[in-house]
Design brief:
single chain, signal-anchor, six-stranded mixed beta sheet, 27% helix, glycoprotein-N-acetylgalactosamine 3-beta-galactosyltransferase activity, 3 domains, Spore Coat Polysaccharide Biosynthesis Protein SpsA, Chain A, 27 strands, transmembrane
Length: 717
Amino acid sequence: MTSEKNLYTKAVHVRATWTRRCNKVLFASEHKNAGFPTIDINVKPGREHLTMKTMKAFDYVYKHHYNDADWFMKADDDTYVFVENLRYFLSSQNASEPVYFGHTYMQAMKQGYNRGGPGYVVSREALRKFATRKKGLCDDDFGPEDIKFGRCMEMLGVEIGYTTDSMHRRRFHTTPAILSPRLLEQGNYTGEDGALCELINLNTYTISLHELQPYQMYAIEYLVYHLKTYGTTRAYQKERTPTRWNYEVSSEPDLYNRVRVLCWVMTSEKNLYTKAVHVRATWTRRFNKVLFASDHKNAGFPTIDINVKPGRGHLTMKTMTTFDYVYKHHYNDADWFMKADDDTYVFVENLRYFLSSQNASKPVYFGYKYMHAMKQGYNGGGPGYVVSREALRRFAAREKGLCDDDLGAEDIKFGRCMELLGVKIGDTRDSMNRNRFHVTAVILSPRSLEQGIFTGKESTLRTMNGLSTYTISLHKLEPYQMYAIEYLVYHLKTYPVEISDKVSSEPDLYNRVRVLCWVMTSEKNLYTKAVHVRATWTRRFNKVLFASEHKNANFPTIDINVKAGRAHLTMKTMTTFDYVYKHHYNDADWFMKADDDTYVFVENLRYFLSSQNASEPVYFGRTFLQATKQGYNGGGPGYVVSREALRRFAAREKGLCDDDLGAEDIKFGRCMELLGVKIGNTRDSMNRRRFHVNPAIFSPRLLEHGSHTGKDGALQV
């Protein structure tokens, strides 16, 4: 969906990027435009007529292209679609059923509706029902188009399909937070130091992003489809894709140890927690060693002790002093030594891959070469430059006073010093004469589409051939852009990707290790907690029950009829296990109790239990060695009882374990001990727990000194 005024400012870029991967693409504007071209639907211009534009466009598609596809997607001219992931998702769906998929809003009508911005996809049968609707149905031109189309779908019996993944993350996104400058605003996704905590809210197989500028579309094209990172495998779809990429450059397993690279980052006191902290949280983690050089030592960050004057006027002295420091303290820690800025992004795998064919014993340094200021030129400081072991040795052994003045541009002065010491500039261009080090991250800039830079007659990006496939560095990046790169390059996958972290090749583990889970909740928590538990992790169990004070047909909860309140949790637990035995003993091999603020990785639980024997009297959880002889398993993280343990519990003597006093987990643990049920060991081979009382990794207090941090305040492994 586009418009006359957007044809050459938005639609032209959509046509040049992601739509090329669809089987067929149409552009719907107000009327036919043979020059672009757009289809002939002839509707009034303006946002108030988007509903009519949508309805007419779908009628047109049915009339002219019904047999050209199985699925039919509507998107906007500021949407970006990962077509491979859309196709992969749809491959497990049935186009003969009346269904449509998208980013669902549960409002405005009974089943909700799919938002228009991220795009929605209708099945072949849904389109047929729409096109054969009664005359006048769905043809008015009032209200938001996505709501009106959603209401039309509901009236025609077209269901909304489920598009969230196994971790309940959306595949269709209304706004791409990961590409926004607002990403790092306090309270969004950041920790106490301002760094992004995690990328967990972003689906690995994202289908669409909305509200993108054209330059961002080209940035995605480059980072996802053109850039290759050494050692990273991205197996792209082999059929019906214009371009196929093989991302496995080499299977060399020990390159990290064979090509050791130290990086020091030039920063300043004022930039430590606005720039350097994000550099530390992203790309620098892939180096063998990283140092931060500020104006003076800051143990809190930490920065190294070089003690130079602050300000851009003293960058030369900062550079010279830092390289002296590196030689004195870390010469034997690496083979190559890189200097970068706190607004640089380095693809460390590509740097290491490039250096693997170079000789660190030769006096050489690499970077983005400027051919002026001196005979051999110099490497620009912004994109970073890398000096060999021999070059660093020569620098540190220079005559006293040589290269020690503090005037002029640091990269020019360092380049002149290298020339005086007989250190050559190495060629970093690739086989197509493209630079690997980039002075500006043009591909991530709104200026990338300015007429005359890289654009053709239509102002579309002509080619990405000016950008090396094995780019090493980009300069002048904002922190949020660094996280965007992290997501797009290292987290996002486009189908198909070979997953190597498969826990088990057992295809029928779901049926072989049957687990029932009952969730302890309460009447007041049903729609504030339990409803979300039901919508997320519990869906992966073989059977799920919710135990509240009494039966609630609307939710529903099971009929146990106990008193409300925390003081009666023991009775709720005992009564529920009796209920489970009576009604569901043959439905499972293992029986788990969890709370409504617990999260369970069911696949890992099932995998763990696959090596245990449900015929033995045993129960598993997070063990506390107190209160009883063998201890007890804490109720919060949940505990799992075997089939035999449940049988013994249900067959206990009348009155045993039936009082309603004390902590429920301790009382249940005491009951298990009385019945001869043992506590099983749930720790892994490194003695780490599998059941956790509180998820420290999700807490703002995670990085508080003394919790899980080292002396430098960094999270320990």
